[in-house]
Amino acid sequence: MDYFLVVLLQIAGAVGNLALISVGLAVIFGMMRVINLAHGEFIMLGGFAAISSVQAGINIWLSMLVIAPLSVAMLGIVVERLVMRRLYGRMVDTMLASWGLSLLLIGLATTFFGNRVVGIAAPVGSFRIGDYSLGAYDFVLAGVVLVIFAGGYAVLRFTRAGLIARATMQNREMASSLGIEPSRVYAITFAIGSALSGLAGGLLAPISGVLPTMGVAYVAKAFITVITGGASVITGTALSSTLLGSINTVSTFVTTPVLGDVALLLAATIFLRLLPTGITGRIFKGAP
Amino acid sequence: MTFSAFSRVGGTHIALAAIAMLAAITILPGFAPLYTLINVTLYMSMGVFALSLALLWGYGGILCFGQSAFFGLGAYAYAIAAINFGDTTLAAVFAILIPALFAAGLGYFLFYGRLSDVYLGVITLTVTLILFKLINSTGGDAWRIGEARLGGFNGIPNTPLLTMPFSGIPLSPAQMFTLAAILLFATYALCKVLIVTRFGRAVIAVRENEMRAELLGYNAKRLKLAVFVISAGIAGLAGLLFATSVFVSPTMFSLSMAAQVLIWVVVGGLGTLFGPVAACFALQMATAALGKLGLVDPNIVLGLVLIVFVVFVPGGIQPALAALYNRIVSPARQSRTLEEVSR
Amino acid sequence: MKISRRLFLGGTAAALTAPWVNRGFAADDITIASIYDLSGGLEIYGQPIDACLDLAVSEINEAGGLLGRQIKVQKYDPQSNIQLYTQFATEAATSLQAATLFGGITSASREAIRPILSRYQTLYFYSPLYEGGVCDRNTFLTGSTPSQTIGQLMPFAVKNFGKKVYVLAADYNYGQISAKWVRDYTAQAGGEVIAAEFFPLDVTDFSAAIQKIQREKPDVIYTLLVGGNHMSFFRQWAAAGMAGKIPIVSTSFGGGNEHIVLTPAESNGVMAAFGYFQEIKSPANEAFVKRYHGKFGDNAPYVTEHASATYNAVHHWANGVKKANSLDRMAIIEAIESGSTVAGPGGPSTIDPKTHHCATDVHIGRVKDHSFEILESFANQPPADTAAVCDLVANPNDNQQYVIQ
User: Could you read off the pLDDT tens digit of each residue along chain B, which spans 343 residues?
Assistant: First the structure.
């Protein structure tokens, strides 16, 4: 029975992990139809920002929850201003630009950080369930993810800013003729999306290897999760992370890690086949 | 056929390409150093790969993130068939057939499920990643098809070189170069001709507006499936050429290979054929040259180049060059055309 | 009137490559080529290798060079891309006419270029540790193979910690073959591998594995995880409160700076077996490390076994050239086969003529505060795994990599 509980907790952890790495991309893609191929590198930079600020003596929680997202958000603002602004509506060109950005960021990170950066250890300890020892940090992650998603849902659904954001997302022209400035909405959204990616990187730093090339492992999974989720940013990503994360974890426990990964990919394929515009293209359509 | 008709169906482009190809195969093998021939052969195999996606995405409107799946399948099919049957010509046929068959199955799954746009792209991405992960784990001796060990991450070393049909003598680098050049030209010509046939026009119509094409009586699903299969076959051919120039390994299915071909098409010009091939050559040469310089991390340079490129050359190389050409050669004609359009 | 773009491109391709041929090399220098990844993800392995290659070459040059000539290295960075490996190897062999080539980090890259170097008759040295089995007269391999390291590590583990071994390995050839050797040597030592899990190279989430391990309750864990993504295991292991609870042994930990990047809380106590550690206390090594830091500064990359084996490889080649008194490939091969020993920093490295692999010392080290303390050393371990399948003296034309069962 202990083991069963452990597996359940692991599923929660895996789902949280997947949701965390996907939400930044979901915001940017869901709101602006921009495929940000540099998403993995934003995560990476968030990780390095967190590590650097911890090494400069700043409290670890502050580094992960505040400094990491803020630094990447600033980068996002710069990128949006210089590059993305000219490319809205041209999804293909945004792919190319963000791929170039990803290469550039990997190159810069390799040059400045290299491969000798000492990481940071998890800031919370572990606890026991029967014979098993589990990291409490996974719960911190899951907790943060819940807050982000709940908060995001609340903002989009109940606040005026959220209304503006959803309006711009649904119909840019109509929104602008109602007095909203779409370019400003896009800029803010890109910054928020980048901040969320940076936050993911900061939070993942204690439990993953932070190296300049770590982003590559995340971008494909995040992209697949976001697309499977469909048009709704919060609901879609939440649903797809839950489904795909659970399938991945259960398959890994039952078979091997390779087949666990394959199972995630197959599941995404099947979901998309059954629901061709993502999960929230059919179920919970129109939810934020 | 009048010249303008000939030109409209792409005849001038094909003719120019033919001249270039003939010039290349007569001049280069005599004068260029050996490794230039080998490198250009490699670039040409990637050029064929670029053409496959240029056709599928530029003209078919199907954004396929996983084109590398067919590329890799072609290479593996060739290597396994060549090792098992010994005859490379038959193996070459497999290299084109197996990806095409796989695409037929996958395409049926996709198009008849009414998937489109990014969603379709993501499924193709998952397919190439699944293949990557699965083949990576086939390192043990037990994993073999016939006599060919799949080799896992190390790939299939000593992929048999293409031989002259019926003779078994491996092609020399100069002969491989000539073959690759002819195949690249043939693929280009095939794509060009395909576009002007009734079939090609219908495919483009589906890309433009699928509902309208269906209302006009065209079977959009079947058309998309057909162009998907053809492009997979071309990608398989590219895989075959790549296998004999480099070697067969699971990295052919990797995310970076899938992204590279997308980048070539975008940089070259989505909706053109020559552009992606040119972009493929240019970016490959740039990457190789950067690797020799050793001054600065190559990713920094490449990344900056791409960003600057997309900001200043929207649409890609070929449309930009064409616009430049029009502006230099016939500014007057350009304004007349605008007048005609606005009427 | 358009200039044919294809011809233009073809001409440019030829023109672009021409200037690189004789750039900066004096007419009577000996040119050798090196192809190691210095960017793109594998640079964590490539940079120390590159540094030690430089060190070895400069030592030889300072001592007067070879045959009265200085050695110049043409370096290529394939950016972790196998296609570039083949392009550069072809160029080095055909256009550059390099006297010899040192290159390749992963086995995949080695297998991509080995046939090319054979075809164009350029002598090849492969120095990183790998899964064993390459049998090729044109190639010398100076890195350790599983029988050398695992052969000592598993008896050590079983003797000191217990009989039940749990294996975690990267899911590719090196991981799979090493896992087989772990099974064999553990069984020989009286132990048993109770489970083996293989992970794709891009997996970052090990929580399922960690829980499975706790269910199985092994006495010792053997890991062969490679790359930055796999470092996450040690982070998550510590986060789950398991650091130090079950002993961990490895033949890959440390090769990618794991002990430097992980905090002491995460990495202390992990044991590894290699043919070389930078912390070995011997006069030869201390002098070597001093020279290394003297040349590259105190922040130079940590010297791994890949790097020290590269240093040895360069000196083996130099031995061959001096003995043969020529740059002729076959003469050098025969000279090295007749006996070449390098007093390397990890201990003497001796080429075995039958396999072209090296008999080396093997050391077991334990991580303590970002460095290793050496626990035991075993002298002169022969490359037994490759020797079981490969005999170049009897079959000089053999040219393949055997998958050792």
Answer: 677 777 777 788 888 888 888 888 888 888 888 888 888 999 999 999 999 999 999 999 999 989 999 999 999 999 999 888 888 888 899 999 999 999 999 999 888 877 777 888 888 988 998 998 888 877 766 777 877 888 788 888 778 888 877 777 888 888 889 999 999 999 999 999 999 899 999 999 999 998 999 999 999 999 999 999 999 999 999 999 998 888 888 889 988 888 889 889 988 988 899 999 999 999 999 888 888 877 778 888 888 888 888 888 877 788 888 888 888 877 665 554 554 455 4
* Spatial distance between the Cα atoms of B47 and C372, rounded to a whole number of angstroms: 49
How many independent structural domains does chain C possess?
Answer: 2
Mutation to test the B interface, candidates C6, C72, C101, C404, most B Cβ within 10 Å: C6
Chain B contact for A255, CB < 8 A? Answer: no
Q: Quote the CA–CA distance of B123 and A267 in Å, as a whole number.
A: 10
Instruction: Tell me if C13 and B157 make a contact (CB, 8 A cut-off).
Output: no
Long-range contact pairs involving B113-116 (C-beta distance under 8 Å, separation at least 24)? B113/A273, B113/A274, B113/A276, B114/A276, B115/A272, B115/A273, B115/A276, B116/A276, B116/B210
Identity at C385, one-letter amino acid code = D
ipTM surpassing 0.85: no
CB-based contact A3:A253 (threshold 8 Å):
no
Instruction: Write the residue in A17, A210, A258 that is nearest to C205 by C-beta.
Output: A17
Instruction: Please name the member of C78, C200, C201 whose beta carbon is closest to the beta carbon of B291.
Output: C78
Is pTM, for the whole model, over 0.95? Answer: no
Count the domains in chain A: 1
Q: Among candidates C78, C140, C121, C115, which has minimal Cα distance to C319?
A: C140
Range of the domain at C327: 5-144+281-360+385-395
- Cα angle B255, B259, B260 (rounded to 5 degrees) comes to 115
The CATH number for C235's domain is 3.40.50.2300
Where are chain B's structural domains? 3-276
Domain boundary among C225, C248, C274: C274
The DSSP secondary-structure symbol of C206 reads -
Cβ atoms of C59 and C288 closer than 8 Å? no
